[in-house]
């Protein structure tokens, strides 16, 4: 049946058209971001809907980099995102492993509670979180963001890691333990190397989530020197005007670490690492 | 090397008791096969021996030492898994030498041992390959090599051949038999394949529903099954079971044929008669104990399987050695070899193994 589908030219064209449409739809905003970043200020409104600017400038980028606090926002975001990704992944890996491999009393309740935490709209809990952070004296600190982001990402990251651990046959660990490993050695020498794709995926997911988070950053951070990048973007919006060119240039720059991060981890995301472990 | 004693062993999952009162003595160097249908507890028992499954009650000893609370790594037992459980991120050499690596053995010594074992198993050209680049048979060999290299007190096999195709299975079966002969180590082997059980075992343990049904040598189980379950489980094709009623000095089949039996225990309890297909003689029509009509004839070359129908009894299977000219629809006479007839009570217990014809 797949043969006839493949040979039908109409279906082939339809498939290509659908993919093209989807890609255009998904990538067009990114193109627009880049386009406006490269458009000189004076042309932004006159050439508003043209697909390409008649003139290109890099002045938006230079002024963002050298005349604003962008680099400091950027650094703060990097610290927060990397910190959150690292802490979350370590905790989620531990919890996911426990859920995947051990039976303990209260396991179902813990899983249920973790699911419930995902059901609340974030807006509902902003005020209590603010109070808690304030009473610890952590307002306007990057560590407050790391703590909050970690707390909110752990449930999903845990379930993600659990599914990766579930995908590794128990036999492998048991074989390692029969061969003289302690459970921890089996984990370190056999399970972790095989879970690298999972760890990579979790790191990437949490990093991106923390990188683009605005709501909590806006609430918990009000000082310029601890602002993260999404909050910093808002500084381009003043009372009477929006500096579109610089805002977009900052946006383009902010995409770079996300892209780099995914290029770096994508080799761990390649699946099929466990093929050949079991069965003939 | 290793003598194992299993005393009143019990396994519970929560409140559910899955095995009870398992008692078994495994002699040093003995090849024991645990066999039974799926869910009978054979793998659970093996995993309790390995230390991968906690023991809920009773005792397990190796060479007189209590093992109940010992970790798998401290029991010094090697195990070959059904899935082979090769580490996919390590090449064959590291897979085989992993136990020595963990033990912290010298690298040169490790390399040497791996090479020795690889030669025995014909793997010396594959040492730098990864598991995914190996065929099923080669993976199986690596898994065995990994076990041999440690020189353990005992070997456990958990259905090691069930993922291989038929011809490879025969080959690996021989290899395991050779391995046992060469190493003389205690081996415990789980399978659901009775051919593996009969060919490999010094003694077979038949399990069903978490209970040991019978322990004995392959021939003992074949010739003197303790109950109907063992009788039907061991031997291929399966034993015919025919309902009977007790009669004076014998039993009566449902079609009225009287089978005269003497030196039986207590025939009053007789409920079923068991006879293996190869223990029924085919005679010309009208000259046997009773007559039958053949329905299907299978020519296997060395043997011929006849599926026959007997009025008042139902279908029976008969195996005749060699090639016979019988065709479907032929009328034939049948006679039971009385010394190979088994009688079971209503609850399936054997009432005596060998029966001789009364005058």
Question: Which features would summarize this protein structure in a list?
Answer:
heterodimer, A: 280 residues, mainly alpha, 2 domains, 13 helices, globular, disordered C terminus, B: 359 residues, alpha+beta, Rossmann fold, OB fold (Dihydrolipoamide Acetyltransferase, E2P), 6-stranded mixed sheet, 9 helices, 25% helix, ABC_transporter-like_ATP-bd (chain B), ATP binding (chain B), ATP-binding (chain B), transport (chain B)
Known CATH architecture of the largest domain in chain A: Orthogonal Bundle
Terminal-residue CA separation of chain B? 54 Å
N-to-C CA distance of chain A: 28 Å
User: What name goes with the CATH superfamily of the largest domain in chain B?
Assistant: P-loop containing nucleotide triphosphate hydrolases
Specify the overall morphology of chain A.
globular
Q: What's the SSE pattern of chain A?
A: HHHHHHHHHHHHH
| CATH superfamily annotation of the largest domain in chain A | MetI-like
The domain tally of chain A reads 2
Assign the CATH architecture of the largest domain in chain B.
Answer: 3-Layer(aba) Sandwich
Low-confidence stretches of chain B: 354-359
CATH class bucket of the largest domain in chain A: Mainly Alpha
Number of discrete domains of chain B: 2
Main pleated-sheet profile of chain A: none
Shape of chain B, please? Answer: elongated
Which two chains touch over the largest interface?
A-B, 25 and 36 residues
Task: Find the structural class of chain A using helix and strand composition.
Answer: mainly alpha
Counted by DSSP, the helix tally of chain B is 9
Oligomer: heterodimer
Q: By helix and strand content of chain B, what is the structural category?
A: alpha+beta
Total beta strand runs of chain B: 20
Keywords (chain B): ATP-binding, Nucleotide-binding, Transport
GO molecular function (chain B): ATP binding
Domain ABC transporter (chain B): 4-234
Family (chain B): Belongs to the ABC transporter superfamily.
């Amino acid at each position: 049946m797949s043969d006839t589908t493949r040979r039908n030219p109409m279906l082939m064209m339809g498939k290509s058209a659908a993919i093209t449409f989807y890609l255009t739809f998904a990538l067009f905003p990114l193109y627009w971001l880049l386009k406006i970043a490269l458009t000189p200020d004076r042309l932004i409104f006159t050439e508003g809907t043209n697909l390409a600017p008649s003139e290109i400038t890099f002045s938006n980028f230079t002024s963002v980099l050298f005349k604003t606090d962008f680099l400091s926002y950027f650094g703060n975001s990097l610290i927060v995102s990397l910190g959150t990704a690292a802490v979350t992944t370590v905790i989620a890996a531990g919890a996911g492993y426990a859920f995947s491999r051990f039976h303990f009393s209260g396991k179902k309740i813990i899983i249920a509670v973790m699911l419930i935490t995902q059901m609340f709209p974030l807006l509902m809990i902003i005020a209590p979180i603010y109070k808690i952070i304030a009473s610890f004296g952590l307002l306007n600190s990057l560590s407050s963001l790391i703590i909050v982001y970690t707390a909110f990402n752990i449930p999903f990251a845990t379930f993600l890691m659990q599914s990766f651990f579930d995908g590794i046959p128990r036999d492998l660990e048991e074989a390692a333990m029969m061969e003289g490993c302690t459970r921890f050695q089996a984990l370190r020498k056999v399970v972790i190397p095989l879970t690298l794709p999972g760890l990579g995926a979790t790191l990437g997911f949490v990093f991106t989530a923390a990188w683009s988070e605005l709501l909590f950053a806006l609430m918990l951070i009000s000082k310029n020197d601890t602002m993260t990048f999404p909050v910093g973007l808002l500084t381009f919006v003043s009372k009477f005007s929006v500096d579109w060119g610089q805002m977009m240039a900052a946006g383009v720059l902010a995409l770079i670490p996300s892209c780099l991060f995914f290029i770096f981890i994508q080799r761990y995301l390649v699946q099929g690492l466990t093929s050949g472990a079991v069965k003939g | 090397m290793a003598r194992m004693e299993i005393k009143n062993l019990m396994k519970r999952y929560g409140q559910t008791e899955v095995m009870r009162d398992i008692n078994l003595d495994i002699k040093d160097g003995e090849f024991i096969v645990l066999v039974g249908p799926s869910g009978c507890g054979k793998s659970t028992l093996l995993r309790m021996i390995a230390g991968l499954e906690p023991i809920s009650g009773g005792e397990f000893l190796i060479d007189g030492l209590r093992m109940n609370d010992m970790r798998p790594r401290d029991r010094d037992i090697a195990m070959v898994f059904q899935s082979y459980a090769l580490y996919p991120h390590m090449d064959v050499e590291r897979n085989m030498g992993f136990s020595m690596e963990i033990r912290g053995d010298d690298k040169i010594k490790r390399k040497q041992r791996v090479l020795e074992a690889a030669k025995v198993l014909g793997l010396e050209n594959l040492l730098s390959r990864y598991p995914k680049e190996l065929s099923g048979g080669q993976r199986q060999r690596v898994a065995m090599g990994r076990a041999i290299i440690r020189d353990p007190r005992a070997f456990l096999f958990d259905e090691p051949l069930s993922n291989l195709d038929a011809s490879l299975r025969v080959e690996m079966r021989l290899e395991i038999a050779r391995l046992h002969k060469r190493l003389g180590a205690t081996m415990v082997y789980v399978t659901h394949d009775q051919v593996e059980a009969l060919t490999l075992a010094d003694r077979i343990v038949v399990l069903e529903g978490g209970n040991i049904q019978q322990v004995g040598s392959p021939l003992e189980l074949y010739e003197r099954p303790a109950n109907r379950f063992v009788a039907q489980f061991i031997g291929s094709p399966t034993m015919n079971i025919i309902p009977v009623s007790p009669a004076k000095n014998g039993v009566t089949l449902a079609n009225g044929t009287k089978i005269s039996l003497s030196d039986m225990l207590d025939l009053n309890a007789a409920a079923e008669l068991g006879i293996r297909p190869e223990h029924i003689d085919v005679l010309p029509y009208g000259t046997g104990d009773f007559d039958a009509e053949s329905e299907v004839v299978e020519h296997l070359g060395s043997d011929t399987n006849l599926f026959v129908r007997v009025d008042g009894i139902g279908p029976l299977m008969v195996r005749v050695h060699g090639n016979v000219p019988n065709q479907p629809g032929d009328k034939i006479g049948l006679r039971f070899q009385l010394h190979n007839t088994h009688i079971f009570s209503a609850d399936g217990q054997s009432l005596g193994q060998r029966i001789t014809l009364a005058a």
